[in-house]
Amino acid sequence: MRVLVLSQYFWPENFGITGLVKSLQERGVEVTVLTGQPNYPSGSVFDGYSAWQTSRELMDGIPVLRVPVAPRGKKSGLRLAVNYLAFVASALVFGPWLLRRHRFDVVFVYAPSPLLQAIPAIFIAWLKRAPMVLWVQDLWPESLSATGFVRNARVLGWVGSVVRFIYRHTDLALIPSEGFRKPIEKLAPPGMPIEFYPNAVARSEPCSEPLSEPIQVLLAGIAGCRSVVFAGNLGAAQSLETILGAAEYLAKEGHEARFFLVGSGSLSDWLAEEIERRGLSNVSLPGRFPPETMPAIYEAASVLLVSLRDEPIFALTIPSKVQGYLAAGKPIIAALNGEGARLVEAASAGVTAPAGDCRALADRVIQIFGLEEAERREMGENGRQFAQRHFELDGLADTLVSRLDALTVKRRNSSP
């Protein structure tokens, strides 16, 4: 089976689609990737790449074809919008030319924001006479309004019309959370297949190089206290003000918990200013570290924290970090509503607090550190076993191959 994977984001950017592509190749699938020039999350194109050129390279024998992009920059909504639209236009113009000698049985779209990246996939799937599978990672247009990225009702309506167009040309939609089903059904044509397909736990590649001194210092700091570690994007969706509010309350109460917000994002500078303004000595902002160091950071943590804003769309979402947290075997505090909180509860892997409630989050920190160490270890082990049963990459790759095979058979049988 020959599969084209289209995604604006791909290796060496740190997204789960890379591990899935490798697993598909291991199962005998001939995979080709069409993507952009890497520039996430720094906003600048990575060393060795050029923003305004097409390029070809191999990743473990997998062809990776890249189209030009306008780098996303930092803290600029305009540049981010241009980045989104530039990839769509670039993949439409250059994609068919780069793929002119290729034939495919399936076009598979990995679709975090922006969902608009499915537009060139529709055209390429038509050219190649192949079905298109859309793995929806983010609900549009809902996420645009929930994060405040777009507030204009007319623009949101236009985006909704484009999303309807995308779904009309989708042969199979995969969703990482059952909460996505009803919002998609409202925009999709009747009868479009929608199937649950969760994000997998990424394989942890051992760190081949000795840990740098900053990482060793960070690990020592995390391991040496009652640490609550948040890892990932530091942006508008993550309700970071709730974490700071909880930290402020705990500091006033004399609690020993320390928060480590590991990562970077659009609110990194705001966080640094707020931590200083509030005098929060119990909050550290160490920055972003390479993906291969994350297992060591998780292992050093006492507790792992995930949070989202109190918005209806986020109650439908399971942040992909939750699977990684479960696999790490550490107790979890989930300060969010809906599907993500239910997952942590189903795994018996931690405690939950309502989204946006800083006092409730502080209470859960007090609660979890009030448990015996053996009880916290049991929570962590529950999470690890749950992740192995439900989110193991090899099993999910096998499932995807079966679904793609069935889709191609259905297409062949329906062809005149």
TrEMBL record:
Top-rank lineage group of the source organism: Bacteria
Transmembrane spans: 81-100, 106-127
Glycosyltransferase subfamily 4-like N-terminal domain location: 18-199
UniProt-listed Pfam families: Glyco_trans_1_4, Glyco_trans_4_4
Keywords per UniProt: Membrane, Transferase, Transmembrane, Transmembrane helix
InterPro entries per record: Glyco_trans_4-like_N, Glycosyltransferase_grp1
Annotated CDD domains: GT4_WbuB-like
GO molecular function: hexosyltransferase activity
PANTHER family reported in the protein's UniProt record: SULFOQUINOVOSYL TRANSFERASE SQD2 (PTHR45947)
Protein name: Glycosyltransferase family 4 protein
